[in-house]
Amino acid sequence: MASSSSNTPKESVVVDCGRRRTSCGYCRSSRHNSISHGMWAHSLTVDDYQDLLDRGWRRSGCFLYKPEMERTCCPSYTIRLKAGEFVPSKEQLRVSRRMQRFLDGTLDVKKVDAFEDPYTSTKSENSSQPISEESLAVGLEEEDDVEKSLHCLSNQIDNVIHMLVEKGEFPSDIQLPKASVKKVSQGKRKLLVNGSEDLLYSSNIAFQIVASVKRALSCDKVGNDSKPSRVCEKENESSPKVIAEKLVASLDPAVKSYGLSIRACNGHINFYASNKQVSLSESVENPPVPKKSRTKHDAGRICVPGPQHRQVKRRKLEMRLNRSSFDPEEFALYRRYQLKVHNDKPQNVTENSYRRFLVDTPFIQVSPTGDSTVPPCGFGSFHQQYLIDGQLVAVGVIDILPKCLSSKYLFWDPDFAFLSLGKYSALQEIGWVKEKQVHCPSLQYYYLGYYIHSCNKMRYKAAYRPSELLCPLQYKWVQFDIARPLLDRKPYVVLSDSSILQNGGSSLPQITDDGMGREFDDGGEDANDVPMLDDEEMVECESECSDDEPDLECSDPEIGDVSKVLLGIEGSHVKYKDLRIVFGPQQRSYLEPQLRRYRKVVGPVLSERMVYSLGEYEC
Length: 619
Hints:
Belongs to the R-transferase family. Residues 23-92 form the N-end aminoacyl transferase N-terminal domain. Keywords: Acyltransferase, Transferase, Ubl conjugation pathway. The protein is α+β, with helices and mostly antiparallel strands and 619 residues long. Helices cover 35% and strands 19% of the residues. It has three domains: 1-21 and 33-59 and 552-619, no CATH class; 77-103 and 314-533, no CATH class; 134-293, no CATH class. The chain is built from 20 helices and 20 strands. The strands form three sheets. Strands 1, 2, 3, 4, 17, 18, 19 and 20 form an eight-stranded mixed sheet that branches. Helix 6 (205-223) packs antiparallel against helix 7 and helix 6 crosses helix 8. The N and C termini lie close together (11 Å).
């Protein structure tokens, strides 16, 4: 279907396709257990689609669909978030910080990062990886350099300890522990005092020496109380702080020559990056150990404390918001994403299917008006591009509507999985809504598509808090934390019943955590980084229009009254009551059940506002 017309329409025109049965993309059932109601949209106003969203509808291109919640295998609840009330979790904040470190050039991209996403199970040796291959090589080389540096620093400390033992500074009649120097993580640096950003390594050997001395003293007292050994004397003279300062005094000259500075801090021996660093390879080949700091224990020993010094490469992230249209570069990225992340077959990822899925739109686009009712970009369908140094790495397909930004789909470059682009783009979209509220106060919500409590891979959406779910019967919004106990009991529930929980009128058995927390905590960095499929792929699969099951009669007289349904026939728009007389009994008996069902799924207001087309149209 064409996404636009030469004569710009002014109203929504839809064709009702009735009930559809398809295979389920979530539970992977071999039977066609996914049941929804479908419509094709010739045209659609953004206001009408906003109201359809708030009745549980979604779109795939120009096709609109709504799960029949009481019948479908995986009940799908519309989930949204009020952007102004969003509180990011620690994990979400970590994603933002990781992206910033990557852009600043300070992120060490380890080999594990490239395979972080659980849906990127394999990586082709022949695939094009313009950034990640370089990053992996640098990351692995740096990791090897760091290990060498830690080993050599530990040896330096052991040498100094041995020297002080010979001088009588440390007891000689006990076995002292070997030194261990460890790398200080980025997170721990931020918890320390100012200047800790240059802290590279640290050792707690002073605490271990004190502990060894105390253990020896305890054994000595038990074995011979009348003859306390020299251990007792040294135990009283030393503390971790004093020992650390002694070690630093002897280590300082040698460490400085390798481009590091060293300080004792509350018993810890800390190594910092100085302004001038010596590269690892240089220090391995020609270690410039000062003569004054050499001892007989240094002879023949090569020590390499200098960290690898590399020029920091800063990257530029650019985001572009474009009206929905076909872009060859975007399609190439989409195809690569579907093949590598979702393991789609190449013959199923075609330009036509991509256009129908993510490019075609029925919306009557709204341009900015300059007032506070429309954001600067206008309303309609958009593609949000994410580019790093000019390279397209992700595309978010979104709808910008009067009350919300509705996230439809996201595809990204598998080589950048370590950046958790699914989470990052969601945070950017939430931030966009908050920012644009200044221009359009009605724009307050972020819609994440469908939430499926019975599908663990979809539960990541509830991590964006505080979210709320749409009741499938009364179309009221219910806080997720209130609705969850009901969903723990069974997949389909009338969420309005959650008022029982709030009012204390009924109690439910205690439900243990069935995986929600574990999925975020133990499922890997990107465990909840699942693409927003939202059933679009299901409607693209082979399916059938089916009316083989009778619809339940509507008990609501208003819904059952189809006289006000707006019909479109031969270019004219009339109420059914004004056209009913021209239909014969057989035609009315065929048409009226369909109109009742249509009025039920879209609601009385929309059935009188949108045009129900009676023209021929492919379903």
